[in-house]
Specification:
318 residues, alpha/beta, Rossmann fold, two-stranded parallel ribbon, 15 helices, 13% strand
Length: 318
């Protein structure tokens, strides 16, 4: 089997984990017969300092043209949004992509990929903290802010930090099948195939962040502790000491979704946590999380994650 050539485009301020996480997964896959060959490339070559003091990488120059690259990784970093405005770095990314069969963006590496035109008209993911900035800057990219990773043709992209490992496991499975990806996941002590549609972070946390110090902060603490209570808009409005009409209007304006949508997301989050962290029957979980029955929980999961609760549990049964 010919080696699958993988190159990482690195630059000053790169995140070490965005390189080392996927790199380690690929190295383990190579030990298991995956035949991956890794190279770190930069604009000029040499030592590249990361965004972690004292951690650096040694790289080779991207010029002249390298051999064909089977997968080009574009990692992110704390200053990736600014680094992506560097004309030399953007030109380097464009140069390498002419040699690449597949692109994999990790975290804020999506900024550089988008600046190089690699994400134009495509679906993509990036770290949730940078989604608003990314959407404002790259209006021609179909950002999916709640996804762990996204594939659109030969361009893959992932959310923050550890999601780069999830993306890499998906690439390994695509290249060499599930058994090798499972072996790598076990060696890394991570869950295999955390679904790309899984939320980047807790929906409860999202709501609390959206209304920190606001009129609904206490409500976002109370709801998760009372999921089997009456959480219709009238009850929530009474809890917030507002009329139902005022409550619905104010809630949507501050939180960005209707009360019913928020309640369902919090229930789904609680159910997902219970499925991942316990062996309780799905019917019991559905009842405790406020779903009328297991079928309603199933439909909610399909809407949110594009998988069923049973499929989610299977993916965490390593």
């Amino acid at each position: 089997m010919n080696a699958h050539r993988v190159s990482f485009l690195i630059y000053p301020g790169i995140s070490p984990f965005d390189v080392a996480g996927p790199g380690k997964a690929l190295a383990l896959a190579a030990e298991g017969g995956g035949q991956y060959e890794l190279t770190l490339r930069s604009v000029t070559g040499g030592i590249i300092e990361s965004d972690c003091p004292g951690v650096s990488f040694n790289s080779v120059s991207s010029f002249p043209s390298p051999p064909i690259i089977d997968t080009l990784f574009i990692p992110g970093g704390l200053n990736a949004a600014d680094a992506s405005k560097d004309p030399e770095l953007v030109a380097c990314a464009k140069h390498l992509t002419t040699r690449a069969k597949r692109i994999a963006c990790v975290c804020t590496g999506a900024f550089l990929a988008a600046e190089a035109g690699l994400l134009t008209g495509k679906r993509a993911a990036t770290h949730w903290r940078f989604c608003d900035q990314f959407s404002e800057r790259f209006r021609d990219v179909k950002l999916e802010p709640d996804k762990i990773w996204v594939q659109d043709g030969d361009v893959w992209s992932s959310a923050g930090v550890s999601a780069g490992v999830d993306l890499t496991l998906a690439l390994i499975e695509k290249d060499h099948g599930g058994p090798l990806a499972l072996r790598v996941a076990r060696d890394l002590v991570v869950f295999l195939k955390r679904p790309g549609g899984q939320s980047q972070f807790s929906n409860v946390l999202s709501g609390q962040m959206a209304d920190a110090g606001g009129p609904f902060e206490a409500l976002f603490t109370w709801i998760p502790e009372n999921l089997d209570a009456d959480l219709r808009i009238e009850s929530l409005a009474d809890k917030a000491r507002m009329s139902p009409r005022t409550f619905a209007r104010t809630f949507a304006a501050r939180i960005g979704r209707t009360p019913a949508q928020a309640v369902e997301m919090i229930r789904i989050q609680a159910a997902r946590d219970a499925i991942e962290q316990s062996s309780k029957p799905l019917g019991v979980i559905a009842a405790r999380c406020g779903f009328e029955n297991e079928q309603k929980m199933r439909r909610a999961f399909i809407r949110k994650f594009d998988i069923t609760p049973a499929e989610l549990r299977a993916r965490f049964s390593i």
